[in-house]
Amino acid sequence: MIHLTKISKQHGSQILFSNASLQILPGSRIGLVGANGTGKTTIFRLITGEEEADDGEISYAKKIKTGYFSQDVGDMSGESALSEVMSAADDVMHLGEKMKVMEAAMAEPMADAAMETLLEEYGEAAEEFENRGGYDLESRAQAVLTGLGIGPADYTRPVESFSGGWKMRIALAKILTICPDVLLLDEPTNHLDMESIIWLENWLINDFKGALLMTCHDHDFMNRVASRTIEVANHTTTTYGGNYDFYIQERETRMKQLVASHRRQQEMLAKEENFIARFKARVSHAAQVQSRIKKLEKIERIELPEHQQVIRFEFSEPPRSGDDVVFLENLAKTWETPGRESRTVFSDISGLINRQNKIAVVGVNGAGKSTFLKILAGKTDPTSGIVKIGASVNLGYFSQHSMDILDPEKTVFETVQETLPLAGIGVIRNLCAAFLFSGDDVDKKIAQLSGGEKSRVVLATLLGQPVNFLVLDEPTNHLDIQSREVLLNALKQFAGTIVLVSHDRHFLRCLVDRVFEIDQGKMIVYKGDYEYYLSKTGRDHRQI
């Protein structure tokens, strides 16, 4: 359907691609992976024509319709949420209006020949309207909006009244509603909660019939949706015939083979160069020397790809807390908003958080997960009930607002150093590197960083401190897969207590040993890991 052949692309002095090729075939489901800055988004922009290749060819099948979702939603105003979504199919709606005009015309008296011509035109228009989903456009738009968490009560809400994250959902709904032949999704799960992620996953697997090319930071989502993986690295693209887990395993296998081949070639080259050096001055060996020089000139050298260095930071043992970290009794929270009806989030919550528990707090959107974490962290008071923090508990709290309190004029190094004033330069640099800030990256100002980079800075400062109780609200938001793995490994070795909210199922599965579910204002405690919770609630991983 779409073929990129021997593409070269450069941004200033930065070479993104050199003779790179990839193809999107009918029905293919491709996950696009690679480190930040390697050119994944540029591939989308090349396909849509927003950028042009410096060299190479991009070819398209005839009459294919492409839909592209990016993190830049553009301006939205003047429409309701539903109208905004349906506006993506303007051409189909115009065709429907044209049919109505023809229907009105056919109700009027006219010559037989004119009626025959009009009927023929109407038949062609009706066939195209049906093929392009015109008859169920509104119901399809409603279904997609609801699946992404915007229910019937909000269909008529002005689109400008939605926050940025909810506008992203509307923008995604627009692309899904038109059901394109080729769907290009750049981080579609950003800003989605667990229920919406599962809905989108199932929609792509069961309902969408076209081809898909996507980037995504959600490990499970990539595994279940993508059946092929294309890695963007070292100025080229490499295709792997399987999902994300297959790609990781196969890349490791290929790398081992490449390293072994590189070692053998280096040994052979060393022997040949040693022979040339020993005998180049001897007339009796002149022919052999020249032969070996020519042989070396023809050999294609095996080059090992650049690897991002990952430094393992050994986090210091946190001070030991008491065995009872938090005691909860009859906890309740009601939000009072002036001029509006009060809203009780939850009530009668009781329980005990023990030392070294790693707890996931789960529940539908709006159940009160973040409110519960704010109460634990002392950021808001309960309306009633008791929250008793145990002996020798040093608490560290992360939320999306944590990034807002960073000083934009300070560098990454200065920010981390400020929280660890007694640590040496080497320790701070090592901590920065553990969260993927190495070399000159530590001298970047906070103002220059992306959302994901700011999250990593806050997490580095948090985990570098002597805290023994971590309360983490969506710590994986904005983080790419590699950054999530860095954080996951850090939390696995953390010897303290963790309570967190996350929509990343892979993250929860690998980390937690308890699940607190907030459901209809009550809390249910599951004394087992995330898989245990799924089995006890009768849900499998495709449902939540």
How does this structure look, described?
It is a single chain. This protein is α/β, with parallel strands linked by helices and 544 residues long. Among the domains are: 53 residues; 159 residues, P-loop containing nucleotide triphosphate hydrolases (Rossmann fold), CATH 3.40.50.300. Helix content is 39%, strand content 22%. The strands form 4 sheets. Strands 5-6-7-3-8-9 form a 6-stranded mixed β-sheet, sandwiched between helices. It has a 6-stranded mixed β-sheet with strand order 14-15-16-12-17-18, sandwiched between helices. A hairpin with a 2-residue loop joins strand 17 and strand 18. It is flat, with a radius of gyration of 29 Å. The model has no long low-confidence stretch (mean pLDDT 88).
Structural class: alpha/beta
| Overall pLDDT level | 88
Number of helices: 17
pLDDT < 50 stretches: none
Oligomer status: single chain
The CATH architecture of the domain at 324-410 and 465-536 would be 3-Layer(aba) Sandwich
Number of strands: 18
The CATH homologous superfamily of the domain at 324-410 and 465-536 corresponds to: P-loop containing nucleotide triphosphate hydrolases
Radius of gyration: 29 Å
Distance between the termini: 34 Å
Strand line-up in the sheet with most strands: 5-6-7-3-8-9
